UniProtKB/TrEMBL annotation:
GO cellular component assignments: cytoplasm
Enzyme type, top EC level: transferase
Enzyme Commission no: 2.4.1.1
Protein name: Alpha-1,4 glucan phosphorylase
Pfam families reported in the protein's UniProt record: Phosphorylase
Family named by the database record: Belongs to the glycogen phosphorylase family.
Matching PROSITE patterns: PHOSPHORYLASE
Organism the protein comes from: Frisingicoccus caecimuris
């Protein structure tokens, strides 16, 4: 792959780290922050004291980075995202500052375990799942690759909820992640922006310029106050910024406004500010048309775009050249109001004509599509949109009007083209269409997904503007998901391939291939896996009070709970296995622990029923003496980035079993592969490319192809009751959903799941083709179980997965975005 040609000299060791100074400063911090000593401080207070010291290490690099950007007049990408699923910062900051081991030693000298201190930090869970974690990996890779970026998002008071399991059911508990403050953030009140909602638009004649002026009046305003979180690059002194916005009332409620008769106005503005950033919407891949959600979107977009323009104008006078210095990357349609907001600023505040404003806007905005599923597409009702954002709505109308003229010119009298591509249609604002029309780039997130966009979902747009479309297969950062999450394997990789350069050049990990048939290396690789399995077993024992056998196969499905991801297929197959083993206690079967972890959106009934089913099956299977522990089912509570790192390192089998065509990419699949787990999956999303890299003989592929699925869908589905009638094993497991086998005799508990296959109250029967793929899945799982019993063969497969994971670093993804979309230059930072 072609990359930026300027070379970057890595300088990982020369960071001026002094253990004794660090130790003294941590002790001083304890005193000044808490008036405590090492003997009296709590673990949480020690974490705070350490984290403040690490922030101090970061500050000089942060200043140096911003200075270098300014000197070189660097171009920035503004990565606009409603979600940044960052996880914990302490460990990864230390790793990227190249002083993790030194700090671990300092803490040990103080009688502390660095892992215990790291465990004190709450996850920054400002995201749901894959989309938010992608944003986090991207800004880390941008920093490591010396590129200027601002991550722009929202400082939710409550992030992704904490999941508790009570009697097998999910209970959501608010995530008060800022309870003890965030030692890494810095409030920047000097960059406060004002964001306006509601009101009306007045038109005035500007005689001097002989044109109309649009004046927004009667609005309510809030202040957007940014908090900056440093994003440290690996060993290169670069520190970029994640800028998340908090909402504050414009003026403190005061009696003066009461006197002026603005009493209601003042209270309303205060209330508006109070709830905008209260909570992250816990929906993954699902649109829920809530007014507050649109407020959140415009709030952080308006603040970010205003800030970007203000910064540009500090050193530039000609806004026509904005595209040379600024690119707004829209992470899904959530920040699409960027388009009309930038237009508004250029038209109303900068006094530009439409055409010049449009030219600039369309050269600055690029859009990433994350899903083709209808229920995830954002379509705002026009009445809501125009009431909340009256001036923005006028601009959207004009964008739509002009675009439809183009469509009409190109496709005279073809109403179907207007129906599919209009931005305003049947009383709705279609955000994806606006992002495509205004963006200069539209990218999918894996090859198969991009092909489906071009050939099917966005076919008309692709025909009209093919040059915009491109693919950027997702990636993950190996600094978190190998170096930090799996230190044993990381050291072993370095030893085997004779360099640690894989840390910033993951394809070098291919060097492991030379050891694939080496018996000693196989043994070492599996020994490390075993140690990681012990670590996870300990975690499960502590948190779930279940004993798991580290010698069993760890077969793992961790991801958001969603019907298309088919956790239901997995647990139905466990029920099938249970029946087999009850009928034939001597059956050939290698003991397996089936591990699940998943949060369900708070209002997603079917997803919550599935969690209850998994826990109910676990109850029966784990406690049946006939099974003798050979099948275990574990549901890990509160799946999130920090325990994900432990889970990936310990996994043998990676369950990636979405209905083909539904998972745009997946990134969990890549984290498993990197850690030497073998994929059991469908030909969906990035699984296709994983199999291409590792070879079909080193993965277990099953199920319908995306073509087959889409062909059935075009014909209204299929008939699951035929399978139910003709396959006695499937007949049995479905019946067990309603005969009380897994519900202490309760025949209603899983009735709706049963009905979804045979008598759905809405939609198609078995919409996600679970029964259709069941036999193929069962057969693939049998192959897995057999393959594991050949220790050498399994070790080789697992090692080859790690060895061939090089493509899936987010460093590669970022270099492709830079080459094709952002056109950034690398910036050297010296201290
Ligand atoms: C990577 C990751 C995801 C995305 O997983 P998929 O299997 O791709 O859906 C979700 N949640 C967390 C915590 C992750 O780390």
């Amino acid at each position: 792959m072609e990359t930026n040609t300027e070379t970057v000299v890595k300088n990982p060791t020369a960071i001026g780290f002094d253990k004794e100074v660090f130790k003294k400063n941590v002790l001083d911090n304890l005193k000044s922050l808490f008036r405590k000593t090492m003997e009296t401080a709590s673990q949480q207070e020690i974490f705070q004291a350490v984290a403040f010291e690490v922030k101090d290490l970061i500050i000089d690099r942060w200043l140096a980075t911003q200075k270098a950007y300014k000197e070189q007049d660097a171009k920035y990408v503004y990565y606009l995202s409603m979600e940044f699923l960052m996880g914990r910062a302490l460990g990864n900051n230390l790793i990227n500052l190249c002083c993790y081991d030194e700090v671990a030693e300092v803490l040990e000298e103080l009688g502390l375990d660095i892992n215990v201190i790291e465990d004190q930090e709450p996850d920054a869970a400002l995201g749901n799942g894959g989309l938010g974690r992608l944003a986090a990996c991207f800004i880390e890779s941008l920093s490591t690759l010396n590129y200027p970026v601002y991550g722009c998002g929202i400082r939710y008071k409550y992030g992704m909820f904490k999941q508790e399991i009570h009697d097998g059911y999910q209970v959501e508990v608010p995530d008060n992640w800022l309870e003890n403050g965030n030692p890494f953030e810095i409030k920047r009140p000097e960059y406060t922006q004002t964001v306006k909602f509601g009101g009306y638009v007045r038109i005035e004649w500007d005689a001097e310029r002989q044109r109309n002026r649009f004046i927004h009046d009667g609005y309510q305003a809030v202040n957007a106050v940014p908090y900056d979180i440093p994003v440290v690059g690996y060993g290169n002194n670069v520190v970029n910024v994640l800028r998340i916005w908090d909402a504050q009332p414009i003026q403190e409620f005061n009696l003066a406004s009461f006197d002026k008769g603005d009493y209601l106005q003042a209270v309303e503005q205060e209330n508006l500010a109070k709830n905008i950033v209260d909570v992250l919407y816990p929906n993954d891949n699902h649109y829920s048309g809530k007014e507050l959600r649109l407020k959140q979107q415009y709030f952080f977009v308006s603040a970010s775009v205003q800030q970007a323009i203000r910064k540009y104008k500090e050193t530039h006078s000609d806004l026509h050249k904005l595209p040379e210095k600024v690119c707004f990357q829209l992470n899904d349609t959530h920040p699409t109001v960027t388009v009309p907001e930038l237009m508004r600023i250029l038209l109303d505040e900068e006094g530009m004509e439409w055409d010049e404003a449009w030219d600039i806007t369309t050269k600055c905005c690029a859009y990433t599509n994350h899903t083709i599923m209808a229920e995830a597409l954002e379509k705002w009702p026009v009445d809501l949109f125009m009431r909340l954002l009256p001036r923005i709505y006028q601009i959207v109308q004009e964008i739509n009007r002009r675009f439809l003229i183009e469509v009409e010119e190109r496709y005279p009298n073809q109403y179907n083209k207007i129906r599919s591509m209009a931005i305003l249609y049947e009383g709705q604002v279609r955000m994806a269409n606006m992002a495509i029309v205004a963006g200069f780039s539209v990218n999918g997130v894996a090859r198969l997904h991009t092909e489906i966009l071009e050939k099917r979902e966005l076919r008309d747009f692709y025909e009209m503007m093919p040059e915009k479309f491109n693919n950027k297969t997702n990636g993950i950062t190996q600094r978190r998901f190998l170096l930090h999450g799996n230190p044993l394997l990381a050291s072993w990789v370095t030893e085997k391939i004779g360099t640690d350069k894989w840390i910033t050049d993951l394809p070098l990990i291919k060097g492991l291939e030379a050891y694939a048939d080496d018996t000693k290396a196989q043994q070492e690789f599996m020994d490390i896996k075993y140690k990681n399995k012990l670590r996870l077993a300990k975690y499960i024992k502590e948190h779930n009070h279940i004993d798991v056998d580290p010698n069993s196969i760890y077969d793992v499905q961790v991801k958001r709970l969603h019907e298309y991801k088919r956790q239901l297929l997995n647990i139905l197959h466990v029920m099938y296995l249970y029946n087999q083993m009850k009928a034939n206690p001597q059956m050939d079967f290698y003991p397996t622990t089936f591990i699940f972890g998943a949060k369900a959106a708070a209002g997603y009934k079917r997803a919550k029923e599935t969690i209850k089913l998994i826990n109910s099956v676990a109850d029966v299977v784990n406690n049946d003496p006939d099974i003798r522990g050979r099948i275990k089912v574990v549901f890990i509570e509160n799946y999130r980035v920090s325990n994900a790192e432990i889970i990936f390192a310990a996994s043998d089998v990676s369950e990636q079993i979405s209905t083909a065509s539904k998972e745009a990419s997946g990134t969990g699949n890549m984290k498993f592969m990197l850690n030497g787990a073998v994929t059991l999956g469908t030909m969906d999303g990035a699984n296709v490319e994983i199999v291409e890299e590792v070879g079909a003989e080193n993965a277990f592929i099953f199920g319908m192809s995306s073509e087959e699925v889409m062909a059935y869908e075009a014909n209204g589905g299929y008939h699951p009751e035929e399978i139910y009638r003709n396959d006695p094993d499937i007949h049995r497991i479905l019946d067990q959903l309603v005969d009380g086998t897994f519900s202490h005799g309760d025949r209603e508990m899983f009735r709706e799941i049963y009905n979804s296959f045979l008598a759905p109250s809405y939609g198609r029967a078995d919409q996600y083709f679970i029964l259709k793929d069941f036999r193929s899945y069962a057969e693939a799982r049998e192959r897995v179980n057999k393959a594991y019993q050949d220790k050498a063969r399994w070790a080789k497969m697992a090692m080859l997965n790690t060895a061939n994971s090089g493509k899936f670093t987010s460093d590669r993804t970022i270099e492709e975005y830079v080459r094709d979309i952002w056109h950034l230059k690398k910036v050297q930072v010296t201290l």
